[in-house]
Each structure stands twice: as C-alpha cells, then as structure tokens.
C-alpha cells in the first residue's frame, strides 16, 4: 500500500506538470530499457507479462511522445530494438527526483533512521530471494 500511495503521488505530480498520461507499465518499460540495450517488443511483452500487441501499444505510445525510439537490431535484420530517447532519459531522472521527494516525506513521518532500516530490510529480502525478485509488474 505504501508503494501504491507513493506511486499515485508521483503520477499526480506528473499530471499536474502537464506530462503525458504515463502509467506504471510505462515506468516498468523505462526501467527495462535503462538496464538493457537489446529489448524487442517481444522481450518487453515477456517482461511485463502482457501480449505482444499490448507491448506494441505501449511502445507506440512512448514513441509518439518521443520517450522511445526503435533502432535496427544488431544481429536480426527483421527485428527492431527499443531505446530511450534523450527525453525518455530526462523523464527517468525527473521521476527519480520525485520518488526521492516522496521518500523524504516518508522519512519525515517515520524518521530517516527508520526509513534507512526499512530500506536495508527490504534489500536483504531481495538479496535472499535467490534471483527471483525482478522489477516487473504484478498485475
């Protein structure tokens, strides 16, 4: 519920700034594209747990808004890889700043030492997951 509250707060702030109507699925797409340079629409669909058609729609939206571009695949002449544009990278930096501000508000409620401990506890749990934890939606 905390994640949802923080995520909703960030999306409300982005909407107030007049940004495009980005959804959490777009954020998961941004994070995947930051981590890899070989993402095709098929790989995006697999990562998000959605159909290839739905992944194509997400990619097309982000491309229309100039957050994403399609580039030739380095080894498959028929495929295209998805990549963040300069605007997409700037958006991620801005979203990270907003997330930091939301965490600062959380720290103001419970105290920074307590928040640091919660971060450490969550990191320990993820590290102990045996690689099962991944940054992907749980629809």
TrEMBL record:
PROSITE patterns: HTH_MARR_1, HTH_MARR_2. Transmembrane segments: none annotated. Residues 1-127 form the HTH marR-type domain. InterPro entries: HTH_MarR-typ, MarR/SlyA-like, Tscrpt_reg_MarR-type_CS, WH-like_DNA-bd_sf, WH_DNA-bd_sf. Keywords: DNA-binding, Transcription, Transcription regulation. One of its GO terms (molecular function) is DNA-binding transcription factor activity. One of its GO terms (biological process) is response to stress. This is MarR family transcriptional regulator.
